[in-house]
Amino acid sequence: MRRRLFLTGPMGWGKSTAIAQALGSRSHLGGGFFTRRSLGPDGHAQSFYLESSDGTESAVFLDVSQGKPVVHPEVFSQLGARLLRENTARFVILDEIGGIEVLCPAFMEALDQLWQRNIPCIGVIKGQAPAAALIRTLGLPEEYAKAAGNLRHYLENDPDTLVYSCSHFDETARNLAVQWCREYVYE
């Protein structure tokens, strides 16, 4: 199994769920983060936040509760970058990358340093269609599309990385995540 495994595909197709199920109660043993969403009473997302893999730290990076999206890129420049730089765990969870954080130089520098350290990583990378939706929804600059595309290109062409395109609640994605965990997480 390759050292890095990233699942990609449309929102709501079970990518993060497959990773969470494979990790089980062991996610706190890794470094990195999860992207979580808080739901309002109507069931729609109110905010998106970054949460450390051990659940001890979190911060909202996108608030959509008032209708107009409010982005907090400093969450990636500060908390996100720190979670990558200060990682001492034997593996890292990156759930999810390829979003607005690609426009944060401090985060991208920390991510590049993580790649150089060759630490096993499991995560989700935003696909092209979800990235295009972010551009429309948040009014992101053209440089976002280029930066997100560069990250996907790097991972898709890296010999130590498997990027798997999921279908809806894909059993293969779950099996790949379990296989990765057997090699890099379970003792």
Task: Describe this protein's structure.
By secondary structure, the protein is of the alpha/beta class. It has one domain: 3-Layer(aba) Sandwich (Rossmann fold), CATH 3.40.50.300. The chain is built from six helices and eight strands. The protein has helices spanning 15-23, 74-85, 105-116, 128-138, 142-157, 171-184, and strands at residues 4-8, 31-39, 45-52, 58-63, 70-71, 92-97, 121-125, 161-165. Strands 5-4-3-2-6-7-1-8 form an eight-stranded mixed sheet, with helices on both faces. Helix 1 (15-23) runs parallel beside helix 6, helix 2 packs parallel to helix 3 and helix 4 runs antiparallel to helix 5 (142-157). The longest helix has 16 residues, at 142-157. The protein is globular.
Q: Mind sketching the topology for me?
A:
Blueprint: E1 4-8, H1 15-23, E2 31-39, E3 45-52, E4 58-63, E5 70-71, H2 74-85, E6 92-97, H3 105-116, E7 121-125, H4 128-138, H5 142-157, E8 161-165, H6 171-184
Parallel strand pairs: 1-7, 1-8, 2-6, 6-7
Antiparallel strand pairs: 2-3, 3-4, 4-5
Summary?
The chain contains 6 helices and 8 strands, in the order βαββββαβαβααβα. By secondary structure, it is α/β, with parallel strands linked by helices. The longest helix has 16 residues, at 142-157.
